[in-house]
């Protein structure tokens, strides 16, 4: 058989030879494919992956992507730390993860091959750029003999292609330096892969025309390299068949591909439209959150103001100052920056002003793994401030869901007059998926009412404004913005007297205020949907509960478990604080609850403390999303285990 | 390029709604809140508060469009005593918070109240960046050369050798000169005044309010509890006469009756007897000079013994403000897009360049 470019782990292969349309070679239909493009940081692998993704999205496949790149902007060339990769999973059905392991690896050099080989199942296809396998390059990554020359790759289906040299000869007529010609090799590789999976090239051609509009020679060279790659597949005997993945059935609508960071920006801007209040972003550059600042700074037409502050503290300070003035104050950061913002978020708790804090989590502690994903800031978000200072915490579950979660964060902040922490992560930030674009008219109405009238009388019977007289239902205090006559008032970080907002050191008042602030956050639960459980037959005994970006891998794992006939229920929390009102009830209705997290059990700790339920963690902190096959094994193990309420283990083996 | 060339607002209060012409004049009591003032008896903060409450009516602004933002420290209680909008924030962060507020609300007159510890120690970073950006903020820095609220530790403006609770055998670190620091941070308006000189203080506030951009006003403030008499030499009529160098724009810079400030051969400034000075070397104050070198040199005439202390406006130059420029970019994008983005614009944003349609 010609390689194994399809995955069959969730059911029988759907291979069938169909008549070729685009190619003169036979076309094999497969149901899903995982491709990983890997090369040196400077080889343009992210761009290549992005383009393949766009063509694939346009064909109607469902998909999910995972860029993975080094923290260094240009790590030493040809070394293992310098390898940058982009993985794409696309299918004729709904895709939940970027895929556990690639079916196809495109390796632009020996480092890319070596760094990724361990992830590659036996029998997978490797397309390798032979030109880079010089004695020196091979030795640089620790191979004694070129792996192309011994039996290192015997278990895989290898296509050895001189990607660089063929690209250079295809561009022989161009008046460009050899270096510029070599740079087009990623377009050659892209062209070859587009041919192999019967994708069109026109989207990429348009893209190149936009990108190189000012450099006609470079444009033509890239177009020529793209076509040369496509034609190479068609003409060379090395590739005997092409593959086709049919469109996935998707809900009707208009779609686009979207990353989490972009979706967050669009969610914020949409919330601005629906509240009628401007976005003011105070932010300091930090990986992997900076793209939110970049994109928002280009949306001034939508009334967005962005301030690149002198530090993380000033970023959140500016946002809070703007919130006092009646704007939607937003700050964006990653874990280390959240630590710096803590005191100001605490001030937001005391002031009871709306504030949106976005933490795109990355590996920690300290500087940690700036470009890798993790979910280890949940407890920092919950408790990382002095005093009793509760805030609302929400987390999106997929790149597209970042849109809805950003709008939800603004809704909670403005309705309940509180800081809201939104916990995205590196995987959501840079990963992408097809997103059904909502109709603007269908977006929730987030109308905000500022205070305009006095709300009390003083001892002399004169009308006065009480900044801490609360809404009886939500306990939110009035939002009276400067410029409103008659409502002049002072707020601050010192404890305030209930109702009047004057400074108060009274013990009973402090006790009251601490409880009121806690109750205000608890009452957010009155207006959020219940936790939904996915339990097809309704009689599963094991529940898998997740939060944030583990949604895809958990859903994929439970699907694998169900495909083998076992029963498992699944639920996912978007609201981490407060949790939906029925959360405890859901947890208690299962014999065993597994909580997979990319940390050492932070949600598990909260659930155990809050609900006295003996949940079990499934934890990995590898800077990468879970492998659903491994998680599925752990779930099966738990299902199979005899019922023993005294079982002491708190972590599922893995 | 000046602010005027860009058609930008010119004075510090342009764009802030004013009282109607026929409205009854505001009084000091209109700016006095109902809160009991709680500084120690004799604290210099009382006179500064009275001066500010007495001065604000003069601006003729709507009271609800004035905001005072403070950090932490004795002086930072200030907003509670003013019947305007106010925020008593956290230690050192007031300039950052005020930057967000002032940038998003051109219709507000935003004042920052801070102290030597708040502005120059924990909040040093925010202060210098607010100044270099030239945000339209009036920053009143109460300098008492001590930490009062935490009961008497030395501050970043305490002289070397200060014996305090935390430096029982004397402090060893060199203090900041707030005026020199502000000038080095590209401040467009820098002045120094003193709590006890109500007239000079009010005149300085007036000039700061008039200035569009960041105005840093250092106010020498006596803390009778922990650093009493820190400025006594400057308050004693006989002593002050010779020690205070009054900076008056366009006038020769004089120290007392018979001394003047001259430029020496190296270009630095010194105080000499007028009789010995070559009239050509006598410095004539020019607060509007584009080059801050002279203002900086004047700020260096200070010394720990307070032999000479310049007071007044060191620098007052016009340059575009951060908040005006940020708003101009937003307004420009809206104007060139044909008005504020509406639903159709949001729809096209959400769609981007590459979409595909799945039909039912
Ligand atoms: S400690 Fe000093 S500065 Fe603070 S209130 Fe008392 S006298 Fe004023």
Topology summary:
The complex is a heterodimer of chains A (654) and B (360).
Chain A: E1 16-18, E2 27-29, E3 32-40, H1 45-58, E4 62-68, E5 83-91, E6 104-107, H2 110-117, E7 125-129, H3 135-140, E8 157-161, H4 163-170, H5 178-183, H6 185-196, H7 202-211, H8 216-235, E9 242-244, E10 253-259, H9 260-275, E11 279-283, H10 290-297, E12 305-308, H11 312-324, E13 328-333, H12 335-351, E14 355-361, H13 378-383, E15 392-394, H14 401-416, E16 419-425, H15 426-430, E17 432-436, E18 456-457, E19 463-464, E20 490-492, H16 507-522, E21 533-534, E22 542-547, H17 551-563, E23 569-573, E24 575-577, H18 583-588, E25 592-597, H19 602-611, E26 616-619, H20 628-640
Parallel strand pairs in A: 2-9, 3-6, 6-7, 7-8, 11-12, 11-13, 13-14, 14-16, 15-16, 22-23, 22-25, 25-26
Antiparallel strand pairs in A: 1-2, 3-5, 4-5, 10-17, 15-24, 18-19, 21-23
Helix pairs in contact in A: 1-6, 1-7, 4-6, 6-8, 7-8, 9-10, 9-14, 11-12, 17-20
Chain B: H1 44-59, E1 66-70, E2 85-88, H2 94-104, E3 109-115, H3 116-122, H4 124-133, E4 137-143, H5 178-184, E5 189-194, H6 198-210, E6 215-220, H7 232-235, H8 237-243, E7 244-247, E8 254-255, E9 259-263, E10 269-273, H9 293-299, E11 309-316, H10 322-336, H11 343-351, E12 356-358
Parallel strand pairs in B: 1-2, 1-3, 3-4, 4-6, 5-6, 7-11
Antiparallel strand pairs in B: 5-11, 7-8, 8-9, 9-10
Helix pairs in contact in B: 1-6, 2-10, 3-4
The complex binds iron/sulfur cluster.
State the main characteristics:
heterodimer; A: 654 residues; alpha/beta; seven-stranded mixed beta sheet; six-stranded mixed beta sheet; 34% helix; B: 360 residues; Rossmann fold; eleven-stranded mixed beta sheet; 11 helices; binds iron/sulfur cluster
What's the count of strands of chain A?
A: 26
Strand order of the largest sheet of chain A: 12-11-13-14-16-15-24
Q: Helical stretch count of chain B?
A: 11
Beta-sheet strand percentage of chain B? 15-25%
Largest beta sheet: strand ordering of chain B: 2-1-3-4-6-5-11-7-8-9-10
Record field, number of beta strands of chain B: 12
Low-confidence stretches of chain B: none
Largest sheet of chain A: 7 strands, mixed
Q: Note the gap between the termini of chain B.
A: 59 Å
Give me the Rg of chain A, rounded. Answer: 27 Å
Order of helices and strands of chain B: HEEHEHHEHEHEHHEEEEHEHHE
Helix content of chain A: 25-40%
Share in β-strands of chain A: 15-25%
Through-space gap between termini of chain A: 33 Å
> What structural class is derived from the secondary structure elements of chain B?
alpha/beta
CATH names the topology of the domain at 10-230 in chain B as: Rossmann fold
For the residues shown, what is the average pLDDT of chain A? Answer: 93
């Amino acid at each position: 058989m010609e390689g194994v470019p399809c995955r069959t782990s969730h059911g029988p292969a759907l291979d069938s030879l169909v008549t070729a349309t685009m190619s003169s070679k036979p076309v094999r239909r497969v149901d899903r494919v995982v491709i990983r493009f890997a090369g040196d940081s400077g080889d343009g692998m992210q761009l290549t992956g992005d383009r393949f993704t766009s063509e694939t999205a346009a064909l109607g496949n469902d998909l999910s992507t995972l860029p993975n790149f080094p923290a260094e902007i240009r790590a030493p060339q040809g070394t293992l730390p310098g390898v940058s990769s982009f993985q794409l999973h696309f299918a004729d059905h709904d895709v939940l993860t970027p895929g556990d392991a690639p079916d196809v690896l495109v390796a632009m050099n020996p480092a890319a091959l070596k760094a990724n080989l361990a992830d590659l199942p036996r029998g997978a296809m490797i397309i390798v750029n032979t030109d880079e396998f010089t004695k020196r390059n091979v030795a640089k990554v620790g191979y004694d003999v070129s792996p192309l020359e011994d039996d290192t790759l015997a278990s895989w289906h290898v296509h050895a292609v001189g990607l660089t040299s063929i690209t250079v000869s295809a561009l022989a007529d161009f008046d460009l330096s050899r270096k510029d010609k070599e740079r087009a090799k990623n377009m050659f590789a892209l062209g070859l892969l587009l041919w192999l999976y019967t994708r069109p090239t026109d989207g990429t051609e348009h893209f190149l025309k936009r990108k190189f509009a000012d450099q006609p020679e470079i444009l033509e060279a890239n177009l020529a390299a793209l076509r040369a790659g496509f034609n190479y597949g068609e003409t060379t005997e090395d590739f005997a068949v092409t593959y086709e993945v049919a469109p996935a059935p998707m809900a009707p609508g208009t779609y686009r591909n979207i990353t989490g960071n972009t979706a967050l920006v669009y969610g914020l801007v949409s919330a601005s439209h629906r509240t009628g209040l401007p976005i003011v972003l105070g932010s300091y550059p930090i990986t992997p959150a900076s793209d939110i600042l970049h994109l928002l700074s280009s949306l001034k037409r939508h009334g967005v103001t962005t301030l690149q502050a002198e530090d993380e503290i000033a970023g959140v300070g500016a946002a809070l100052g703007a919130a006092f003035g009646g704007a939607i104050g937003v700050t964006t950061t990653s874990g280390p920056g959240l630590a710096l913002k803590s005191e100001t978020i605490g001030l937001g708790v005391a002031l009871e002003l709306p504030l949106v804090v976005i933490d795109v989590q990355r590996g920690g502690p300290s500087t940690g793994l700036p470009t890798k994903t993790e979910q280890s800031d949940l407890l920092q978000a919950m408790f990382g401030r002095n005093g009793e200072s509760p805030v609302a915490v929400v987390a999106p579950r997929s790149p597209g869901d970042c849109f809805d979660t950003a709008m939800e964060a603004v809704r909670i902040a403005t309705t309940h007059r509180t800081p809201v922490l939104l916990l995205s992560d590196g995987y959501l930030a840079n990963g992408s998926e097809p997103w059904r674009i909502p109709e603007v008219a269908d977006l929730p109405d987030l109308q905000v009412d500022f205070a305009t009238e006095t709300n009390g009388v003083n001892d002399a019977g004169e009308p006065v404004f009480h900044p801490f007289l609360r809404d009886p239902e939500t306990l939110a205090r009035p939002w009276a913005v400067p410029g409103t006559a008659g409502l002049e008032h002072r707020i601050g970080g010192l404890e305030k007297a209930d109702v009047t907002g004057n400074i108060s050191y009274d013990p009973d008042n402090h006790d009251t205020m601490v409880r009121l602030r806690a109750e205000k956050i608890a009452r957010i639960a009155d207006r959020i949907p219940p936790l939904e459980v996915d339990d097809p037959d309704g009689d599963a005994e094991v529940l898998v509960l997740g939060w944030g970006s583990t949604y895809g891998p958990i859903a994929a794992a439970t699907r694998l478990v169900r495909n083998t006939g076992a029963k498992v229920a699944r639920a996912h929390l978007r609201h981490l604080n407060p949790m939906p009102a029925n959360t405890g009830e859901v947890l208690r209705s299962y014999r065993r609850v597994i909580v997979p997290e990319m940390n050492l059990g932070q949600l598990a700790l909260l659930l155990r403390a809050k609900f006295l339920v003996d949940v079990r963690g499934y934890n990995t902190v590898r800077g990468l999303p879970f492998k659903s096959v491994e998680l599925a094994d752990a779930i099966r193990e738990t299902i199979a285990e005899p019922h023993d309420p005294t079982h002491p283990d708190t972590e599922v083996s893995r | 390029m000046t602010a005027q060339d860009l058609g930008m607002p010119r004075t510090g209060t342009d764009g802030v709604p004013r009282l109607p012409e026929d409205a009854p004049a505001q009084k000091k009591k209109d700016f006095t809140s109902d809160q009991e003032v709680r500084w120690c008896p004799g604290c210099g903060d009382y006179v500064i508060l009275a001066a500010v409450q007495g001065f604000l009516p003069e601006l003729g602004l709507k009271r609800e469009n004035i905001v005072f933002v403070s950090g932490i420290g004795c002086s930072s209680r200030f907003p509670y005593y003013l019947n305007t909008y106010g925020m008593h924030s956290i230690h050192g962060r007031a300039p950052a918070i005020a930057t967000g507020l002032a940038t998003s609300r051109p219709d507000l007159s935003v004042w920052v109240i801070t102290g030597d510890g708040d502005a120059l120690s924990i909040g040093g970073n925010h202060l210098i960046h607010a100044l270099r950006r030239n945000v339209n903020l009036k920053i009143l820095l109460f300098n008492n050369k001590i930490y009062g609220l935490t009961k008497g530790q030395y501050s970043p403006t305490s002289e070397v050798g200060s014996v305090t609770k935390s430096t029982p055998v004397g402090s060893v670190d060199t203090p900041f000169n707030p005026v020199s620091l502000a000038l080095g941070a590209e401040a467009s308006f820098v002045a120094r005044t003193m709590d006890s000189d109500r007239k000079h203080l009010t005149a300085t506030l007036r000039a700061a309010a008039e200035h569009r951009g960041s105005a840093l006003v250092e106010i020498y403030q006596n803390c009778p509890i922990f650093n009493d008499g820190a400025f006594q030499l400057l308050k004693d009529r006989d002593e002050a006469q010779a020690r205070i160098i009054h900076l008056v724009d366009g006038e020769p810079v004089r120290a007392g009756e018979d001394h003047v400030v001259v430029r020496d051969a190296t270009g630095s400034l010194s105080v000499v007897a007028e009789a010995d000075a070559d009239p050509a070397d006598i410095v004539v104050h020019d607060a509007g000079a584009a080059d801050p070198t002279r203002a900086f040199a004047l700020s260096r005439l200070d010394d720990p013994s307070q032999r000479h202390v310049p007071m007044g406006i060191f620098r007052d130059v016009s340059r575009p403000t951060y908040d005006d420029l940020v708003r101009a970019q937003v307004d420009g994008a809206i104007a060139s897009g044909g008005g504020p983005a509406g639903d159709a614009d949001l729809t096209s944003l959400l769609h981007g360049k590459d979409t595909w349609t799945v039909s039912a």
